[in-house]
Design a protein that fits this description.
Blueprint: H1 3-7, H2 28-45, H3 49-65, H4 69-85, H5 89-103, H6 115-132, H7 136-148, H8 153-169, H9 173-190, H10 193-210, H11 213-230, H12 233-249, H13 253-271
Helix pairs in contact: 2-3, 3-4, 4-5, 4-6, 5-6, 6-7, 6-8, 7-8, 8-9, 8-10, 9-10, 10-11, 10-12, 11-12, 12-13
Length: 272
């Protein structure tokens, strides 16, 4: 299995939206915090990561000025996502550390409502950062901590995807295949198309390791269909690489070469 396949799976942390609201009933500082957070969302969606960092930082300052637990934690999670996307993983980890320090001071009564979901998101991101840094034991621990918070059903497939990737990187392809299939079902139920594509890609990787080239080809093909729809260049390239390797494993060197070429072109175009 090549590293590029795994680089294309289970990295889909998403920004978290707060409750919308405006008007005279909303205190000015809260309205300003929400506006800055909205600016951060827009900048992130357009790939303007420095601007997103600045906007979320301004939102965080306002939430901290009124010591709003949900606003603070949500914004720190979003900052972690943005900094990770900017390849500043130490900054992302600093955001998660800030969450841990802050939450340690809160009474149990404040860990209700939206807060457990936010903390589950933070635990997922922590697990992802550990996995990227080559710390599988720490990644497992963070995943377990996040699962203990009983994340809502629409997050469970993402947890399963990351666990499947962790198992694959530990050489436990059989277990990874079981977990990735569980993730696929969960993501299909929740309607999370990006995570569903990642589930298919993980299933393809696991099937290849298990020597089931035909199943791998079908899984990568499913992933490619979705990733094309979602216009995810890096994922499309990973899917094509998987299709090339599955074709090669089935003895079809001509088709494998064709997929290799498509993957190379997609990778180059994506870099441009």
């Amino acid at each position: 299995m090549t590293e590029s396949w795994l680089a294309g799976v289970a990295v889909g942390a998403l920004l978290l939206s707060g409750c919308a609201g405006s008007g005279d009933a909303v205190p000015p500082v809260v309205r300003e915090a929400r506006e800055r957070a909205d600016d951060g969302h827009d900048a992130f969606a357009e790939g303007r990561l420095d601007e997103a960092t600045l906007s979320y930082g301004e939102a965080l300052t306002r939430y901290r000025s009124i010591d709003d637990p949900v606003g603070i934690v949500r914004t720190l999670v979003n900052l972690a996502v943005v900094r990770n996307a900017a390849d500043a993983r130490s900054d992302a980890a600093d955001c998660l550390d800030a969450i841990d320090r802050y939450v340690a001071t809160l009474p149990a009564a404040d860990i209700t409502g939206e807060m457990p979901e936010l903390l589950a998101e933070a635990a997922w991101m922590r697990a992802y950062l550990h996995l990227e840094a080559g710390r599988p034991a720490a990644a497992n621990e963070a995943l377990a901590r996040g699962r203990a918070l009983s994340p809502p059903s629409d997050l469970r497939g993402r947890f399963d995807n990351l666990e499947a990737r962790l198992l694959l990187e530990q050489g436990r392809a059989g277990e990874a295949r079981i977990v990735a299939e569980r993730a696929r079902r969960a993501n299909r139920r929740s309607g999370d198309r990006a995570e569903l594509a990642d589930s298919h890609r993980l299933l393809g990787c696991a099937a290849l390791v298990a020597g089931d080239a035909a199943a791998a080809f079908g899984a990568f093909d499913e992933a490619l269909t979705i990733d094309r729809e979602l216009a995810r260049p890096a994922k499309v390239a990973a899917d094509l690489e998987g299709l090339a390797e599955a074709s090669r494993a089935m003895g079809d060197t001509v088709r494998a070469a064709a997929f290799d070429e498509r993957a190379r072109l997609a990778t180059g175009a994506g870099a441009d």
